[in-house]
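cron nightly-structures :: item 1 of 1
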Amino acid sequence: MPKPDTANNQEVRPDPQLERRTRRTFTVDYKLSILQQAAACKHGEVGALLRREKLYTNQLAQWHREFDIMLA
């Protein structure tokens, strides 16, 4: 049996702008800062840095490769 139609029964329409995920972009200065901080870390501290900044190890490795190419 269908529900009775009431005034509170409104149709919900999702907003596509709110549902779209965007990639984070990082500036060159930020990347260099993170690389310097990672280089200054002692054994076992890099993980804490990455967690604090919400980064992944592959990002750090990619940034190392990018800046090695720039310096070569």
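cron nightly-structures :: done
The mean pLDDT is 87.
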